[in-house]
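Fill in residues.
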């Protein structure tokens, strides 16, 4: 009996080690982020790390932007439930080690090891940080596994764009109408569109070329802004709780949109405040 137990434990440990090694090779940045507290990065505030060489000015700018971003997210969600670890890399080389090599100014990881937002020198921007923090909030509410199994990327990106004013150049006033106008500009007034089923995977949002990437983001923002104008905050909360309970995203998304909603409307002066 003892030999059987010992063999089982050895097999279990070997399996865990194998999984960890495979995970490291598949997602090395996530492993590095999870081990950030064991590095020479400085924890300038609880859960906020800055690389060695980050200036006092950059540290101050980072913490101020995070605080403003949290206020923006509170205005949109009502409250914040996620607690991502935020990592600032003061050089591009470090950012590529901990974040992304695809040219994005910031990156987000939702994983079984935790939630991480990694910011490059060019990512010290309220819209950039709010965008990634919104990804973290959605994942924090649903869990990383549900996010990967249930949530299409167009919804994840579209929702993040509701607190990110770069793409329609909204200047603090995100709306479906603004997205429609920007879409017409970008497609030169043609009838061209993108089907949402073409935007379900994250690869569609990786910058192969700037124009295709802009179309993917704009289409996502246009759809989510349209849906939110009908569903309102109460609809978004209902969608999240339904999925948390095991509901199907597609069915819930459509049914909530078509259900009459009263109250809990987004206060644009609060949610879409001009806080730059």
């Amino acid at each position: 009996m003892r030999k059987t137990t010992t063999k089982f434990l050895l097999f279990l440990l070997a399996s865990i080690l194998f999984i960890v090694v495979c995970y490291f090779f598949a997602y090395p940045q996530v492993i590095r982020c999870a081990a950030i507290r064991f590095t020479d990065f400085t924890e300038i505030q609880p859960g906020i790390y800055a690389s060695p060489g980050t200036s006092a000015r950059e540290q101050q700018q980072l913490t101020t932007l995070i605080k403003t971003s949290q206020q923006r997210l509170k205005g949109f969600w009502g409250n914040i439930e996620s607690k991502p670890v935020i990592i600032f890399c003061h050089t591009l080389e470090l950012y590529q080690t901990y974040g992304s090599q695809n040219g994005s100014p910031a990156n987000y990881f939702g994983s079984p090891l935790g939630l991480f937002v990694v910011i490059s020198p060019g990512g010290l921007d309220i819209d950039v940080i709010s965008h990634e923090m919104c990804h973290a909030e959605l994942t924090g509410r649903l869990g990383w596994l549900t996010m990967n199994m249930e949530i299409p990327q167009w919804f994840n990106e579209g929702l993040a764009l509701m607190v990110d004013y770069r793409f329609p150049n909204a200047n603090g006033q995100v709306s479906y109408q603004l997205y429609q106008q920007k879409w017409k500009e970008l497609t030169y007034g043609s009838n061209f569109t993108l089907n949402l089923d073409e935007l379900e995977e994250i690869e569609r949002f990786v910058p192969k070329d700037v124009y295709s990437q802009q179309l993917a983001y704009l289409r996502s923002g246009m759809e989510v802004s349209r849906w939110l104008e009908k569903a309102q905050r109460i609809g978004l909360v209902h969608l999240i709780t339904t999925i948390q309970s095991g509901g199907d995203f597609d069915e819930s998304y459509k049914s909530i949109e078509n259900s009459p909603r009263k109250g809990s409307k987004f206060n644009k002066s609060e949610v879409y405040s001009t806080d730059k």
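The longest strand covers residues 106-111.
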